[in-house]
Structure formats: C-alpha cells, structure tokens
Amino acid sequence: MARRTHDDALGVAGAETVIGTGVVVHGNLISEADIIIDGTLDGSIKTMGNVVIGINANVKGNVEGQLVSVSGVLHGDITASGEATVRETGQVKGNIKAAGIAISSGGVFIGRSIMEMPPKLNLPSDATDASNELGEQDDEA
Asked: Which 3 state secondary structure label does DSSP give 71?
C-alpha cells in the first residue's frame, strides 16, 4: 500500500477550495488551486487557479484569478489573467480587468472594464528580418 506524505495526509493535495451554501467566511482566501464559493464571503480571493462564484454566493471583496465566473453577487473588483464571465444570474458591482470579458443576457455589471491582451511572445531577433524575406522591400533602393 502506498504511503501518503505528511503534506497529503487527507488525500486532498491540489484539490479546490469549496465554500458551500450556508457557510459564512470572514477573511481573505489565498490559494494556488481553484476556488468555488456558493456561500457568503466577506473578504478577498487571490488564486493562480480559477474562481467560480456560484448562484447562491454573496462575496464582498476583490477577486483575482485565472478565469473568473460569477453567477451570484460580487461587490468588488475582478482581476483575471484570462476571461471574466458574468452569467445570467450574476451581479458584479465593481471594476473588471481581464484579457476577455463576457456578460450573459440577464447578467448585471456596474463598473468599468479594462481588457488587457496577454503578454506578447518575445520573438528571436532574427525573426524580425523574416518580413523582408516575405516580399517586403527595403527603402534603400
């Protein structure tokens, strides 16, 4: 039988954090994994994973993650490295800063939005000369 390490004594390493319906949390959540909220949170969320704010959720605080989906109520700002989505039942009262923003019909968004492109790829220096090989002419002629 395989022996579990001390860090994974409960078998939940890498598992997502779930705050269920009826649960009330006061404080900030910081994680590297996905976070799902369907209860009440009075505090901010910061994760390298995805954040799902469920239909029964009421969150008062800022949310930072990769993909952020809101089906409940959020009073705070969203910062997403990927897409931020406000679903049909979602309400966001705060600003959204993300690479992509989607608001479903019926979803409520009150605030400002900023879409930021993901960082550009750093091309090797010789790749900039490829345009000349594709038929572009220099002005030196």
From this structure: coil
Q: How many domains does the chain have?
A: 1
Residue 46 within a domain: yes
22 falls within a domain: yes
CA distance 139 to 141: 6
Backbone angles phi, psi at 85, to 5 degrees: -125, 130
For the stretch 100-136, pLDDT in tens is 999 999 999 999 999 987 655 555 555 444 444 444 4
Q: Which residue has better confidence, 87 or 127?
A: 87
Domain assignment present for 5: no
Supply the range of the domain harboring residue 126.
15-133
Q: In sequence order, what E strands does the chain have?
A: 17-19, 24-26, 29-31, 35-37, 40-42, 45-47, 51-53, 58-60, 63-65, 68-70, 73-75, 78-86, 91-93, 96-103, 108-110, 113-115
DSSP, res 126: G
Is 8 within a domain? no
Distance CA 78, CA 2 (A): 41
